[in-house]
Amino acid sequence: MNQSGDLISPSHLSDFLLYESRERGDILTNLKLQKLLYYSQAWHLALKGKELFEEDFQAWVHGPVLPSQYQRFKNFEWRPILEEISRPKLESQLDQYLNEVVDVFGCETAVSLELMTHQEPPWKEARNGMAPDQLSTAIILKDSMKRFYQSL
Question: Which of 71, 59, 68 is closest to 118 using CA atoms?
Fold first, then answer.
């Protein structure tokens, strides 16, 4: 995000989260990266009232997924993402905000983050009563995310 407040690309956000997590000694899997992306967007909607990026999350079996970033790192499967990543230059407020996201959610395991999203209304509403193992590309609405996280 630049000084004019433009949106960040999901790839830049992934790069930041991967780089920052590595700096703290945590190598992310695609599952954990997806949850950090989700909470970055969700809390930005709640606290700042606007999205970080346009792409929508889908309510997959293992929780919210950003399809572009899932596809980008799909070849790592369940293993740690070891791709060479540079730290993107971000506007200082955004950098500070994303560091707070990593502070709060980075210490959780991928599975505990998945379980958290499964307990929260945005993912559950998007899945609308589907079986737990039913595949889905249902969109998790940004309004639902904003409303729920603002209520906390």
Answer: 59
Tell me whether strands 63-65 and 57-60 are parallel, antiparallel or unpaired. antiparallel
Selection from 74, 44, 108 nearest residue 65 by Cα: 74
Residue-wise pLDDT for 29-84, tens only, equals 999 999 999 999 999 999 999 999 999 999 999 999 999 999 999 999 999 999 99
- The backbone torsions φ and ψ at residue 54, rounded to the nearest 5 degrees and listed phi first, read -80, -35
Take residue 75 and report the two structure tokens written for it.
């070849």
Local confidence band at 5 (pLDDT 50, 70, 90 cut-offs): low
Structure tokens at 124: 């559950």
pTM over 0.90: yes
Instruction: Please spell the DSSP secondary structure of the chain, one letter per residue.
Output: --TT-PPPPHHHHHHHHHHHHHHTT-PPPHHHHHHHHHHHHHHHHHHHSS-S-SPPEEEETTEEE-HHHHHHHGGGTTS------PPPP--HHHHHHHHHHHHHHTTS-HHHHHHHHHHSHHHHHHHTT--TT-----EE-HHHHHHHHHT-
Q: Round to the nearest angstrom and report the end-to-end CA distance of the chain.
A: 26
Residue 21 structure tokens: 């997590």
